[in-house]
Design brief:
The protein has a three-stranded mixed beta sheet. It is elongated. Helix 1 packs antiparallel against helix 7, helix 2 runs parallel beside helix 4 and helix 4 crosses helix 7. With 216 residues, it is mainly alpha-helical. The longest helix has 41 residues. It has one domain.
Length: 216
């Protein structure tokens, strides 16, 4: 929890710092997103402005790149990095990137299991003295969440790599702006790394409870 809090704090501070650096080309996040989509031959994805801070995401269900207000209208290194990153996901979708397809295929399953998993795990622990079956089911359900968390990592890293490569090749950012954009995306990626490791640690914790029960 401490590491997660630190990374979230560091991410916000980095974005705040880089948001003060106006791009030399004065392009907004919206303009950068639309240009990246166009140059990748993607014309059926809309770029939208959404409420909140760091709420940026690509939604493949309705083909939208959703940018927070500050990113959508921002003309700085941070907004450029985020806008291009989210478009990186749209490019992955358009090119049928296998790991994105795998992660997307897990979403319906997780939407169902996430409703019942906490209750199954709680019930499994309460009933462990009687039978291990409910906790075993809970561990299996939780393992899907862990797999999803780790499948997310290469998807996020690849989207950032696509974004940075395109911005560099198209001279969207200069040398110093590129360094700031890469640093911002690096801290954003670390939040996913921590989430995956946290999920793995929790899974191991529940498995250890099962192991202790079997020994007893």
């Amino acid at each position: 929890m401490g590491v997660s809090w630190f990374i979230q704090w560091r991410l916000r501070s980095k974005f705040e710092e880089y948001s003060k650096v106006t791009l030399s080309n004065n392009m907004s996040g919206e303009e950068i997103a639309k240009l990246m989509l166009k140059e990748n031959g993607i014309y059926d994805v809309k770029v939208m402005s959404v409420e909140g801070q760091l709420t940026d995401h690509y939604d493949p269900t309705d083909n939208t790149v959703n940018l927070s207000h500050d990113v959508y209208y921002g003309r700085n290194a941070a907004s450029a990095a985020v806008a291009a990153h989210e478009c990186g996901h749209a490019v992955q979708h358009a090119k049928a990137y296998s790991l994105l397809q795998f992660r997307s295929s897990m979403v319906p399953l997780l939407s169902v299991t996430s409703r019942w998993m906490p209750w199954v795990l709680m019930g499994g622990i309460l009933l462990l003295a009687v039978t291990p079956i409910p906790l075993i089911i809970g561990v299996v359900l939780f393992s899907f969440t862990t797999v999803f968390s780790f499948a997310t990592l290469p998807v996020e890293f690849d989207a950032s790599a696509r974004a940075l490569r395109w911005m560099k090749d198209r001279n969207i950012v200069n040398g110093s702006e590129y360094i700031m954009s890469a640093d911002a995306l690096r801290w954003a990626a670390l939040t996913y790394v921590v989430a995956a490791l946290s999920s793995l640690a929790t899974l191991i914790y529940y498995i250890s409870i099962l192991n202790n029960r079997s020994r007893n």
